[in-house]
Amino acid sequence: MQIIKDKKIVDDNWQRFVEITADEILPTGDIIVPFAYWLDNKKVLLQRDSRLGVCIDGDDETEEVAKDIEHFDLIALDFPAFTDGRAYSHACLLRERYHFQGELRAVGDVLRDQLFYMQRCGIDSFQLREDKDMEDALNAFTEISVKYQSAADGAEPVYKYR
Amino acid sequence: MYQYDKYDQKIVDERVEQFRDQTRRYLAGELSEDEFRPLRLMNGLYIQTHAPMLRVDIPYGLLSSRQLRMLAHISRKYDKCYGHISTRQNIQYNWPKLETVPDILADLASVQMHAIQSSGNCIRNITSDQFAGVAEDEVEDPRPYCEILRQWSTFHPEFAYLPRKFKFAVSGATHDRAAVQVHDIGLYLVRNEAGEVGFKVLVGGGLGRTPVIGKVIREFLEKKHMLSYMEAILRVYNRFGRRDNIYKARIKILVNATGIEKFAEMVEAEWSYIKDSALLLDQKEIDRVRAQFAPPEYDKDAAADSTFDDHLASNQAFAAWVDRNVKTHKVSGYRAVVVSLKAPTIAPGDVTDVQMDRLADLIDEYSFSEIVTTHDQNFIMPHVKQADLFPLWESLVEQDLATPNIGLLTDIICCPGLDFCSLANAGSIPIAKQINEKFNDMDYLHDIGDIKIKMSGCMNACGHHHVGHIGILGVDKKGVEFYQLTLGGSAENDVSLGDRLGRGIEKEKVADTIGQLLDVYVEQREEQESFLETYRRIGIEPFKERVYPKKNLEEKVVASANY
Question: Out of A82, A97, A117, whose CB is closest to B273?
């Protein structure tokens, strides 16, 4: 699979599981599991020798995710619809308040015209919706070059340069 | 007024190209209708009954003559030679073609204007007191803070997809002319006991389907914390505001559900983390923006003129106009002039290209090239020398812009209604016309005095009907237009939501019914009481009885008529 990471199209080997049944055996390799699954299966997941990611949705409390943050190499933020903006706040909090250094990945209804906002909130990888053109989406990062306000991308408000 | 620097200019220029590309992709089928909708709304573009509607931001209502000429040009080149001033101090064009909108935005950018976030579920145009900078009762000019908020909120990445739209109003005066208490966030510039100026912060006000008066969340906020505190409120709202039901998604619903104390705790907790971050506002930036709102060079001898008094004494029509449309100014010898967009024969708030061009010339001549749109859909010329009032009035009369009705019955706030808006249930403009036709006697209007009629064609309340002294709400009952009246609303310091009078009134009887309400007022008023004061003293019953006479009373009247 290909994704956009650090503003480039790259191959990606993470396997994301949206639902995991009780008797399912997870494959080897880097996996992303629902945050709720992590809460119920911490022990097993910690014994794996691959990288671990969790996926959170708008209802998950960032404060809860933060408690276990050192165990995660990746946190996926699910956009059920591109108009649901809760994950923007989750991303900002994970980066700024909880200093998450791993990969923050947007999944779900991820479209070109929101990528600018997402990356400013600290999201650094994007699994674009399947029917969308990744080459085209890369343009999103260069459309607007001035940033009026500080955000989780480390930008200072533009007035500091005035 | 604020002048763009290279950064401000770059951001609007880049936005034009971004939207040009978005429009191209939409027309090419690369963006679906659903994907394009939020993008076009964030550029003020609606798809309406007859055509798209484009809403252009006028931050805190302030325009230069150059900008006003461009607005006239746009109405001529891309629309039907007029624009409509909205209750958020913006201008709306009712007939642009979708394909031409990128070109309109490019024209706007050439005069430091844009349509960014004039709609959509994001932070909208920031409104203020139309007399900002010239009001006598001002603690401090609010416009620099509006401008700082405008910049902070423009493309704010975390708050681009809020649960619902979000409106700010800022006032620096003791008299609230900006309807601050019915905004998602309302800010008053106030002085604390130590003599410092900061903000009193209100949250959770709003009109729409569920009108709510804002609640004080913080009595005093230092200016340097303005942005961090706003960010804390918005973050709590973005995380916890409802997204399951569009009608319950505004912050007012969250604040009411949580309770203001608990909501304030959540905000303060959030704020404690971010108050000293990069959001801390530099005094240097405040000073930079404030300097751009420095007063113009007023003529020190303006008050020495005696021609103004001569004209007042000799010309009744001029005197009547001065009485209603000319307001005080903090500088002696100057006045602020209200340009009435409420002539009897036009839709309230509409202004033609010819009028805009002429106004641009007049403000170049008489008002330091500045003009302000108002939330009650008129213009203000903020700095007119008293000696210039008479020639200015003569010019305004020529353009039908001098109807002496400011604050009177015919100075109606009116949404576009069924004639243009796809959300509307009923017409607004025809009712305004009906009211103007019935109440065409200026002496009667002056006798009735100060009264605010506010009308919306649907419960979204763009015409602020809840806070009209008389509010009119258009409803649809099985395909027929009816109008529900409310009494006793106010958007000023004495804020209140109107009480419902009773069942809906048939379309053709609205003006007559208002006539009945005014009869009750005239019969019951004491001394100089205004309509609102009388209403507050006597309550709704006498008005109800007049409009909906009881059955037996009706029979009695009929019976007595038979004799």
Answer: A97
Which of the following CATH numbers is that of domain A2-161: 3.40.720.10, 3.40.190.10, 3.20.20.70, 3.40.50.620?
3.20.20.70
Domain parsing of chain A, residue ranges: 2-161
Q: From CA B448, how far away is CA B442, in angstroms rounded?
A: 10
Spatial distance between the Cα atoms of B513 and B484, rounded to a whole number of angstroms: 11
Read off the pLDDT of residues A62-100 as tens digits, 9 standing for 90 and up: 999 999 999 999 999 999 999 999 999 999 999 999 999
Tokens of B7: 């950064």
Task: Kindly report, residue by residue over B278-330, the tens digit of the pLDDT.
Answer: 999 999 999 999 999 999 999 999 999 999 999 999 999 999 999 999 999 99
- One domain, residues B446 and B542: yes
Residue B20: CB atoms within 10 A of its CB come to 15
> Given a cut of 90, is residue B61 above it in pLDDT?
yes
Q: Report phi then psi at B454, rounded to 5.
A: -130, 135
**Which of B239, B272, B275 is most worth mutating to test chain A (most A CB atoms within 10 A of its CB)?**
B239
Could you tell me the residue range of the domain that residue B334 belongs to? 302-398
Report whether B179 contacts B468 (CB < 8 A).
no
Cβ neighbors of B240 (< 8 A, separation 6 or more) are: B254, B258, B266
Please compute the mean of the pLDDT values over residues A5-26 and round it to a whole number: 94
Q: What is the CATH number of the domain that holds B387?
A: 3.90.480.20
Strands B453-456 and B413-414: parallel
Give the mean pLDDT of B158-164.
98
Helix or strand or coil: residue A19? Answer: coil
ipTM above 0.90, yes or no: yes
| pLDDT tens-digit readout, A104-162 | 999 999 999 999 999 999 999 999 999 999 999 999 999 999 999 999 999 999 999 99
The whole-number pLDDT of residue B224 equals 98
Instruction: Mark whether B281 and B155 lie in a shared domain.
Output: yes
Under 8 Å between Cβ of B452 and B468: yes
Residues of A with CB under 8 A from a CB of B: 58, 82-86, 88-90, 92, 96-97, 111, 113-114, 116-118, 120-121, 136, 139, 143-151, 153, 156-162
Q: Between vectors from CA B149 to CA B71 and to CA B295, what angle results, nearest 5°?
A: 65
B382 and B424 fall within a common domain: no
Cα distances (angstroms) measured from residue B372 to each of B34, B85, B357, B429: 36, 11, 15, 23
Give me the residue from B17, B22, B239 closest to A89, CB to CB.
Answer: B239
The residue ranges of DSSP E strands in B51-110, in sequence order, are 52-56, 62-64, 82-85, 91-93
> Is B449 found in the same domain as B469?
yes
- The radius of gyration of chain B's CA atoms, rounded to the nearest angstrom, is 24
Structure tokens belonging to residue A81: 């619809």
The DSSP code sequence of B20-37 is HHHHHHHHTTSS-HHHHH
Asked whether residue B328 falls in the same domain as residue B376, the answer is yes
The answer to whether the beta carbons of residues B74 and B55 sit under 8 Å apart is no
Q: Do B350 and B440 fall into the same domain?
A: no
- My answer on whether B148 and B278 are in the same domain is yes
**Does residue B156 sit at the A interface (CB-CB below 8 Å)?**
yes
The total of other beta-carbon atoms located within 10 Å of residue B451's CB is: 22
Residue A50's pLDDT is what? 96
The reply to whether B121 falls in a domain is no
Neighbours of B478 (CB within 10 A): 5
CA–CA distance, B370 with B246 (Å, rounded to integer): 39
pLDDT, residue A137, reads 97
